[in-house]
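Quick note —
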Amino acid sequence: MNISQWISLLGVLGLSGCGVLSLENASSLKPQSAQSLLPPCVDDDCNCPDFRDQALAQIVLDAFPDDPFVLDRDGNGLACESLPPVSPGLDAAVPPSSTPHLVLGNPSNAAAENPNNLLIERSQYALSYHRDRGIANWASWQLSADWLGNTERQDNFRQDGGLPRGFYQVTPNDYRNSGFDRGHIVPSGDRTKSNQDNSATFLMSNILPQAPENNRGVWRELEEYSRDLVYQFDRELIVIA
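Predicted structure written out below.
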């Protein structure tokens, strides 16, 4: 079951109060010979932020020369030229190491060999990813004054280019018209020391479907309370969610 199916199921269960995911079926528009190479957004509406680099956007433009998604705004044959030519290094998962984010242990014994309990360690956090569901099982991160600064929220939701080949690439479009927020696990507000640290929290592997009243209410308050412990009492926290 992928992320779109999970979002639909949550809506059926009434967790959002806003209905279920509604995606238009555009499969009839896909060139069959290239169908396996195209990202999921072609079933709805591709936008430049859905792609982690220009090369992926170009694949869609080449498959749809009429440019129904308006990826080539200046008509020069190049899609989404503002994107990097290839994925930036911060998207790649780093090799396992003695990360401070796992000092309390590995909750599910996640490992590189298990696709539905895949351990991903980044300098900003660690998480276990579930390939079939397209979401994380858990994330663990250190929160201290060393991670907090004045960096603005980057808001660059995007695919996780560090996932293994063959994994479904969740895009920001998968949440469109679902009634759910793109909810952070590791909060953007916990990584404000640098643009790179904050940007790493907007990878879709760190995002879960959250009901708006939860994401913008009690969950946000819990995040702020955790940071208050750092600001006011100089605490160091290890958070597992």
